[in-house]
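Ticket opened by: R.M.
Priority: normal
Category: complex prediction / small molecule

The reporter submitted a protein together with flavin-adenine dinucleotide and asked that the result be attached to this ticket for the collaborator who will pick it up next week. Submitted input follows.
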Amino acid sequence: MRYEAPKTLEQAIELLSGADGRARVLAGGTDLLIQMRSGRAEPELLVDIKAIPEMTSIAADMGFYRVGAAVTCMELIENEAFAQAWPGIVDGVKYIGSIQVKGRATMGGNLCNASPAADGVPALIAAGAAVCIAGPRGRREAPVEEFVTGPGTTSLARGELVVSFLLPRRAPHSGDAYLRFTPRTEMDIAVAGAAVNLTLDATGVCTRARVSLGAVAARALLVPEAAAALVGTRADEAVLDRLAAVAGAACRPIDDKRGTKEFRIKVAGVMARRSGKIAMERARRRS
Ligand SMILES: Cc1cc2nc3c(=O)[nH]c(=O)nc-3n(C[C@H](O)[C@H](O)[C@H](O)COP(=O)(O)OP(=O)(O)OC[C@H]3O[C@@H](n4cnc5c(N)ncnc54)[C@H](O)[C@@H]3O)c2cc1C
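Result attached by the on-call engineer:
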């Protein structure tokens, strides 16, 4: 097996697209190394992206954020301005493993590993984030919700990699939140998760919302009908009940040892309801 740590994006693309055999991007390695040890992944070339400045930096410009795909979860958590702007994304990142895991794990790896239960992904979808992809044919952007195509699969073509995440500018009175349910308090995989991102007008009425669910389908879902339950309301208890019901109805979960389909549907609704409430409180506090 060959290991390369290019210093530029161009070199990384050249290595990935020119590889004869199986080539894999290596970010934090917290998914990939485990897959290699168990024999599930047997790359002939590893392209470590952590020496590429564009992929390891967080840039803010006029309220827009560009977060490099190889920025670690801990770097994101410790970036106070980012955490203030997008607390829901930070909620998701905080769930990823232990402190040691968060010191290595990246958002790009969380998305590209394409687990339906990835905790970093629903809040990115709810935020309306785009993923910036580069490859031998140049650069392209895609909404995060379209990137994963199923468990373990993505829309990346040969030689392509995720460079960064692009986040829109926040309107005043906006708030987001992500919650997940696991049987254990940490170091576990989500049974169901929900992210809500919303904007209020000056009178406290919700004018825009996006809702995303994780671990209840083959990939994280954007649920416009759940968002519609919030828009035009002040998200009182009856509205939050409706949000829970609509979110539950959008779920297409599997049965497994962590929970039955019925349990996941119920829990996804509860997570959406609670995330909606937290997002409302955060939006009210933000001028
Ligand atoms: C103990 C433990 C607990 C965990 N708990 C959680 C949890 O609670 N929630 C959760 O969601 N996850 C959890 N994980 C999984 C893992 O930590 C995350 O998915 C993490 O974000 C992966 O990031 P990474 O940088 O380590 O990815 P890597 O392992 O480096 O890569 C993962 C995959 O993505 C590909 N890849 C990485 N970056 C790119 C890129 N920029 N472009 C193209 N392809 C890329 C790699 O080739 C590989 O296929 C846990 C892992 C461990 C070991």
